Amino acid sequence: MPFNVLPYIPQQITVHLGPPDQPAEDVTVSFPDYIKNVASSEVYPTWSEEALRANILAQISFALNRVYTEFYPSRGYPFDITSSTAYDQKFIKGRSTFENIDRLVDELFTSYIRREGFVEPLSAKFCNGTTSQCDGLSQWGSEELARAGQSAMEILRHYYGDNIELVTDAPVRDITSSYPGYPLREGASGEYVVVLQTMLNRIGQNYPAIPRITPVDGIFGPQTRSAVEAFQRIFGLAVDGVVGSATWYKLVLLYVGVTRLAELVSQGQTFEEVQGPSGDTTLRLGDRRPAVASLQYFITVLGEVLYNFPTLTIDGIFGPATQQAVEDAQRYLGLPATGVVDRATWQALYDAYVAVARTLLADRSLPISIAELEDLAITGQFPGYTLSYGLDTPQG
User: Is residue 2 part of a domain?
Assistant: First the structure.
């Protein structure tokens, strides 16, 4: 799900060889091979290289949007995308591909386009521009623009707007389900509960009968249960206040729908929405709370792009490894290395994270200096309490 997670490139993708509601074979192929097949099926290898680049980037971004939004799994299908051009993009099982297209895909498959300031890959819809017209990229039109001297990004901005940017070197990993793998019920806590509460609150803007959860604190209490039951009642699910896979994926489906994440006119998930929770509870050694997981997440993301910066297992536990990572991060950020996440430390980590996520994960060289981060920093939010190693409170 698009919460507190940067998009990634799936190692493999499962394609349904037909319309989603029709019986057909499902095939699983590597993501680069999928894009090579799509590009070889959708455009001509004799086209100008910049036109090919623009089309390949659009095809990658569209497929990644399908994965990111769990578009088909949230509808109960066991695949990620279809081969039907009425819904997705053309894929022909077993077809041969073209050498120049293969070369470009190998170069580009870890890149995608997105709206500036948004997290999700752009749902970069396209059509041939002759027998069919659409609001997205015209395939034949892209070739005309390339022959007129436009670059791939100029072509893409011509069709999708000036407020798009290119993300390069996205991480590659297996597709993971957003569902935690077990039902969430009253008494649960952690990152999955934060996601649940966030989805319920956003869907509640369109369905006022769902009571609002305040604050979003990652604790599944009576308020969250009431919102879950209202959601289940409205959408014809078993009203038990427990979030099993059926309720979870119905939430995903509705969330993606109300935010239009799978459309060109998406409201978008902004990086500013990735932040620590508010509250007045002090987190201590052994405590398992969303704020610690958020802290570990920020440090881990920064660790992927900054030299000599620690990375962590995001387990929500403020233990010795987290303390050491905080001390290292404080030294890097020019703060006293106390191992205590006070307001100044939280603000500095958040600002550095947002600067990297919004700007530096796009097309930019590394390593990155702290001076650059400070120039790009955006105000974040302190969680409302001090996080420190060795503090002792009951687990959430």
Answer: no
Chain center to CA of 257: 16
In a domain, 295, yes or no: yes
AA letter at 224: T
Find tokens 């000599």 and name the residue. Answer: 308
**Using one digit for the tens of pLDDT, what is the confidence trace for 42-82?**
999 999 999 999 999 999 999 999 999 999 999 999 999 99
Q: Is the dihedral of CA 156, 159, 162, 165 positive or negative?
A: negative
Q: What is the DSSP string of 101-125?
A: HHHHHHHHTT-EEEETTB-SPP---
- Residues 6+ away with beta carbon under 8 Å from 46: none
pLDDT single digits (tens) 198-213: 899 889 988 989 999 9
Q: What is the DSSP string of 141-172?
A: HHHHHHHTT--HHHHHHHHH-SSEEEE-S--E
- The range of the structural domain enclosing residue 343 comes to 276-388
Residue linked to tokens 């620690």: 310
pLDDT value of residue 196: 92
